[in-house]
């Protein structure tokens, strides 16, 4: 799938080196094709890294995708330049009159804050409500998944005794589910969070379907019964070195950093980790785009 992104977006050069099929907006404009319009509400602090990670996964399918990057207007980013946001990002106010085929709401490292105390919570809930009628399918990731489960289905997050960090084995629970097509019975995905949601609350909720969980990391994949909302509590989009970077960052800050589980060979942080979740991550995003966005969205929104 060619990704249609701004010509000067920093992720473009990285993805081209990886031979990810992308095209800039000038070339895409001259193609007589209706692309999928995907919005990414990027709540992560290092936005440029997250852009690259998500665009890499969205580029693994045979259709053209047009990307709109969003950031909260009610929050001042501290680790992304104002120039980058002004050049490549829009706010909800600027796009709320539009319809989108899909939206991704990312995680954010703010699990310790009650939802209502997050300074952009009111804006985020407005966006999540708007998604019900203006977006064909919405994927929520990590904290974004917890926020969505809380807002839409009243399932609150709960603090963990210690951080859940590492690469964990997950089990596929439901068949036949289109989102799980091609999945192995066991697959891997990274997690990095200090809170989780209760497994029984998800399993017994009448409007939710639990698709996958991990014995160690808990709930992983959840879908609303109407299939409009997908919740991913881990980080399948992470690069191979992301957990390592987080671990070293916390150690440098003098924090009691927990070694990511099942990540470094023989739990030796001096050895390079292996990426064992690449195939699952690509399949997850490809299935979402194909079955829940492309095949469900109208050719012309009315």
UniProtKB/TrEMBL annotation:
Protein keywords: Acyltransferase, Amino-acid biosynthesis, Cytoplasm, Methionine biosynthesis, Transferase
Record-listed substrate binding positions: 163, 192, 249
Signal sequence bounds: none
Catalytic residues identified in the record: 142 (acyl-thioester intermediate), 235 (proton acceptor), 237
Domain of life: Bacteria
Enzyme Commission number: 2.3.1.31
Primary localization class, coarse: cytoplasm
GO molecular-function term, one example from the UniProt record: homoserine O-succinyltransferase activity
Keyword NADP attached: no
Annotated InterPro entries: Class_I_gatase-like (IPR029062), HST_MetA (IPR005697), MetA_family (IPR033752)
GO CC terms in record: cytoplasm
Catalyzed chemical reaction(s): L-homoserine + acetyl-CoA = O-acetyl-L-homoserine + CoA
Record site feature (Important for substrate specificity), residues: 192
Entries under Gene3D superfamilies matching the protein: 3.40.50.880
Compartment list: Cytoplasm
Keyword Ubl conjugation: no
Function, in words: Transfers an acetyl group from acetyl-CoA to L-homoserine, forming acetyl-L-homoserine.
NCBIfam families: metA (TIGR01001)
Family statement: Belongs to the MetA family.
Record-given protein name: Homoserine O-acetyltransferase
Organism of this sequence: Priestia veravalensis
Lineage, opening ranks: Bacteria, Bacillati, Bacillota, Bacilli, Bacillales
């Amino acid at each position: 799938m060619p990704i249609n992104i701004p010509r000067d977006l920093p992720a473009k050069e990285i993805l081209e080196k990886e031979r990810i099929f992308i095209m800039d907006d000038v070339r895409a404009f001259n193609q007589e094709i209706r692309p999928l319009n995907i919005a990414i509400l990027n709540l992560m602090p290092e936005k440029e890294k997250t852009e690259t990670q998500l665009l890499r996964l969205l580029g693994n399918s045979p259709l053209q995708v047009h990307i709109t990057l969003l950031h909260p207007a009610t929050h001042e980013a501290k680790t992304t330049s104002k120039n980058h946001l002004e050049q490549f990002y829009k706010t909800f106010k600027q796009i709320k009159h539009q319809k989108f085929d899909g939206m991704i709401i990312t995680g954010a490292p703010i699990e310790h804050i009650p939802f209502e105390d997050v300074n952009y919570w009111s804006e985020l809930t407005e966006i999540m409500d708007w998604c019900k009628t203006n977006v064909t399918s919405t994927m929520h990731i990590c904290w974004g998944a917890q926020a969505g489960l809380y807002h839409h289905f009243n399932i609150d997050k709960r603090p963990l005794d210690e951080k859940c960090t590492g690469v964990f084995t997950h089990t596929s629970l439901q068949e036949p589910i289109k989102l799980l097509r091609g999945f192995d019975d066991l697959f891997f995905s990274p997690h990095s969070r200090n809170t989780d949601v209760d497994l029984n609350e998800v399993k017994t909720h009448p409007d939710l379907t639990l698709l996958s969980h991990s014995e160690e990391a808990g709930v992983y994949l959840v879908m609303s019964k109407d299939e409009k909302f997908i919740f991913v509590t881990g980080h399948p989009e992470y690069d191979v070195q992301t957990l390592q970077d987080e671990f070293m960052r916390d150690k440098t800050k003098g924090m009691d950093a927990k070694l990511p589980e099942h990540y470094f060979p023989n739990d030796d942080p001096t050895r390079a980790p292996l990426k064992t979740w690449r195939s699952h991550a690509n399949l997850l995003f490809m299935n979402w785009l194909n079955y829940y966005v492309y095949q469900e969205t109208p050719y012309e929104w009315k």
